[in-house]
Amino acid sequence: MIKEFNTQTEISVGLEALWAALSKDFINIVPKVLPNIVKDVQLIEGDGRVGTILIFNFLSDISPSYQRERITEFDEISHEIGLQVIEGGYLSQGLSYYKTTFQLSSIEEQKTLVKVKISYDHESDIEERVQPTKTSDSTILYLRRLEKYLQLNGA
């Protein structure tokens, strides 16, 4: 049965700049924001919208060495993007389903609220190893690093 874990954070970057970084410039920005984890991100199939398949190649000391994801939601009006792991990554660690959805809304000119929904399912013995609070912590860490990157690079 698919479970959900929700969290949110405020990012001190304007909505449009953050949306562009999470949706359009994703492939180029992720390796710069997570240089100790992600070697590169490749567009395997699609145009960056629903159905697009990406592969995240991790550095050699990280196992598993890659994670393939499909964009399952993409709404420029509501600023929502959903990424589902379809191979490698968390699925190699015993999860049978893992999806992260980001929904952005403007708070102020240079402040954006990011709601994060993690949907997951796992094999019965995996719950202790891969917990949604841990994966949400890494997602929030990514957003914090993205915030710093965008602030330093003029977003």
From TrEMBL:
Segment forming the signal sequence: none
Cellular component aspect of the GO annotation: cytoplasm; nucleus
Record Gene3D superfamilies: 3.30.530.20
Top-level taxonomic group: Eukaryota
Organism field: Cajanus cajan (Pigeon pea)
Residue span(s) of domain Bet v I/Major latex protein: 3-149
GO BP terms: abscisic acid-activated signaling pathway; defense response
Family matches, as PANTHER family: OS08G0374000 PROTEIN-RELATED (PTHR31213), PHYTOHORMONE-BINDING PROTEIN (PTHR31213:SF64)
Gene Ontology molecular function, alphabetical: abscisic acid binding; protein phosphatase inhibitor activity; signaling receptor activity
Name of this chain's protein: Major pollen allergen Bet v 1-A
Family to which this protein belongs: Belongs to the BetVI family.
Pfam (any one): Bet_v_1
